[in-house]
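Field: COMPLEX_INPUT
Field: COMPONENT_COUNT = two
Field: RESIDUE_TOTAL = 654
Field: MODE = joint
Values follow.
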Amino acid sequence: MELLNNIILGFGTALTAANLLYCLVGVFLGTLIGVLPGLGPVATIAMLLPITFTLQPISALIMLAGIYYGAQYGGSTTAILVNIPGESSSVVTALDGYQMAKQGHAGKALATAAIGSFVAGTVATFVLALLGPPLAEIALKFGPAEYFSLMVLGLAAAMVLAHGSLLHALGMVLLGLLLGLIGTDVNSGAARYTFGQPWLADGIGFVTLAMGMYGLGEIVRNLEHEETRSVMVKKVTGLMPSKADFKRIVAPIFRGTVLGSALGILPGGGAMLASFASYSLEKKVAKSAVPFGQGAIEGVAGPESANNAGAQTSFIPMLTLGIPSNPVMALMIGAMIIQGIQPGPSVMNEQPALFWGIIASMWIGNFFLIVLNLPMIGLWVRLITVPYHLLYPAILVFCAIGVFSVNNSEFDVYLMALFGLLGYIFGKLDCEPAPMLLGFILGPMMEEYLRRALLLSKGDPTVFITRPISAVMLLMAAAAMFVVLSPAIRKKREDAFHEEE
Amino acid sequence: MSSFIRHPKDFWAGVIYAALGIAAVILGRDYPMGSAFKMGPAYFPTVLGGLLALVGVIAVVRSFVKPGEAITPFAWKEVILVLAATVVFGVLLRGAGLVVALIVLVLASAYASVKFRWVPSIALAIGMTVFSILVFVKGLGVPLQILGSWFGG
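Field: COMPLEX_OUTPUT
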């Protein structure tokens, strides 16, 4: 009955007036950025981080989490109504969702997405509650060698699951790790790669890096091909799916939830992978009569459940092991560190209210999403058409003031501009920024664990393969890389990422 | 030269990786290396830099063998306007103060859009300035000067 007590503790924490408010603000903002063009959860969370420094840790994390899963929801709204996926995770939703809208079933598609998300969110919350404690239990037994290998595994998985070339993903991870080492070395006090500049002594802030690569880089990329959005469906009616529709969506929602929950836990996984995988699965198991690509309700129900489940279970490695599985989780870890919480398995024991409060807030947040968003659909429809040329200068204002306020330093503003340029160039070269951000967060931790592991083994590197748990994790990392390099799987991986074409 | 490069994206990414990796190794020589048993501050970055340089070299070599798409043209005007607006914001913030810095930031960056028009952009600049003063300075207490030292603020 410990689980029950924990859940009661969680709801007790999440149901205070202040935390309810921050949860509501989080899911509202999340939906907003999901609907607005050219603004993703990574850039938004990075922009809002400086503001959350003044909040209680639990309130800050509840709000940031709400932004993440709220964005999945908002992203599907634009996917269905204008055929533009607001988030990468709703790319596949656009395939059938937009066709449904064209046939006059926009309301039904939106309701299906909402119901699927809610069911998936509820199940994923329980998965998190069930899996969290045993995982943290195991992780508490980890020594530095195991931690180092776990991080290698996490980065390897992130590389495998990034799109594009594995070599570029490796390059970006290494670059991120190196950038993370800039600043004062904690062991020797040596100022590394600071060029004698005092403002670099504390290292590069991850807010600066994330806002530059995702915020500014994204703005320039969007300006390259500006598009005008037009909403075909001005009034959304007929929200409730019929009994026959319910029959059709039950199984896809169930499959999507299971698949999404499993894929979300994987390092490098999360919402996007889950939705792509679910769409492929639905196509495979469906009867031939189901018109995929022409408005099949199954094609909305499955991926939408999967991406929400994946978004939520990707908190598991972050909360229990302190390992980020995607850039948003990397930012959440950053937020915890700034709040003075050392991420890792001890969070659950030392801060049970925080751990269970976040979990409970996710369920509450999903409830908010379903009761707020369907009635508010008129507002979201109007926001979809906000012209980008009036939106991006405002985003830039938030980025500039936000990054300045972290350290009250204009150097951070310059550094952000530099990363914006880098982000744009890397985008041109098909190098994804996500592995770099993960490497950046993990860099200092990896160095520390490597140092400690080798200190304990007196410099003997075989410690990583003689300790069984560590060896298994390294073996899994190697296997993941090897599998991706094999031609058959490589083709499948490319197909999975190119479902929309 | 360019006829040898069959995959320009791989080539230039490789060049960037190799340059940064080598730079990390060379700059790392200023710090003590230590040994695996007692790692110095240069140990881990040197290993990473070496690996990064290796990845870069492989990418460059591969770009001579495996063909790939050309790099789409750079949107220089947009890049320069948006990034310069950001940098100028940083320069102006203390001296001229938040109001001037924000108006310059909004107008200069908005000019990068092909849909730029003066009237809505000026309205946006004024709106964002009022919003920022109310929310960031008054509401959240970010220590920003509304009028900078040049105006005796």
